[in-house]
Design brief:
This protein is of the alpha+beta class. The chain folds into two domains: 51-99 and 265-389, Efflux pump adaptor protein, beta barrel domain (Elongation Factor Tu (Ef-tu), domain 3), CATH 2.40.30.170; 104-245, Helix Hairpins. Helix content is 48%, strand content 22%. A six-stranded antiparallel β-barrel has the order 1-7-10-9-8-11. A hairpin with a 7-residue loop joins β8 (323-327) and β9. α3 (100-180) runs antiparallel to α5 (238-258). It is elongated, with a radius of gyration of 56 Å.
Length: 393
Amino acid sequence: MGDKPFLKLSGKWVITGAIALTLGIGAVGVSQVFQRQPDRSSVLVPSSEESSAISALGRIEPAGQVIRVSGPTGERILRLLVKEGQQLEKGETIAFLESYPERQAEVKLAASRYLEAQNQFVAERELGIAQRQEARTRRNQAESPKMREITAQDAIVRQSKVEFEQAQLDLKRYQYLQKAGAVSQQDLENKALEFQSKQQQFERAIATRDMLQEELQTDSNNAKAQINRTQAGTLRSQAQIDLASAQSNLELAKARMTRTIIRAPKAGQVLKVLVREGESIPTVANQGKNAKQAIIEMGNTRQMYVVAEVYETDINKVQIGQIATISSPVIKGEIEGTVDKIGLQIDKNDVLGTDPAANTDTRVIEVKIRLHNSIAVSGLTNLQVDVAIQPQA
């Protein structure tokens, strides 16, 4: 009986101790939780250089963008001479269209007609040359006797002049002698008649020579006119007109044939073949929205670029010559490049991220970055990449 109060007292102390022990453990646990929180000053903060880098999404493309090589819509491909991955030089043949054999035959026909017209023109030209030579010969034949006559008449004129001048001197001498009474009046009159005769002979000789010279000039002019008419007739001949027409037809046939040969507009690699042999070149409507008719897509993969879409609010921080870092899960490591060109137009973004909550109508400006290592991504045209443009040092 004496032990029971002690036991009850002991039970109260046990309960009281348990509560105290529990409260003590809880206090220690709360104390440890507060002690384990890290000091805010020890949290790592990005450096100013990393935080100032301009981030953007971008896509990889060849230098000069992807070129779509096309041809006349609806034309069927006769022969395709390239395959994907093939390197082409500028002007290298890509394909022949189905109309190529027909156009080639037209060129051969036009070339044959041009050759015939050329031969005809040469024949008529030689005939004209022969006619002009004949006219010259006739002119020479007409001029030679006349020239001889003029030469002979010149001699007569000179002789008549001498006789006329001598008769003039004799007349003056007789006039002096008659005044002195040395000769009679009859003798003086005879000398005057002789002087008049010599004067008339001299004038007739001059007139005859002038007439011969005029005849020579007239004959020469007529011969020259005939030569000119012959030459003009040759120049305006039907053969020459036919030759010019045949040449035009040949050039037109060659131009039409050229349109049936598809050539590389510049050097580059074939990225994709869109039309095979026997298929027709599709129209825009048959290729879907925003598509263009094309036979192949090609580009200069020896030098690759990244087109980064930089937010309009960050474009003022971008300058030509800045270094950019390109990364993607597909690329091993990172690739550096240099900002080569900054666009002049603000547009909506084309490269969309994987975040479903991302803004799909972001206003951006395209910035082209020339990659330092093009080999690593030469086969990854249109790959989406992450771009970090470093600030100018």
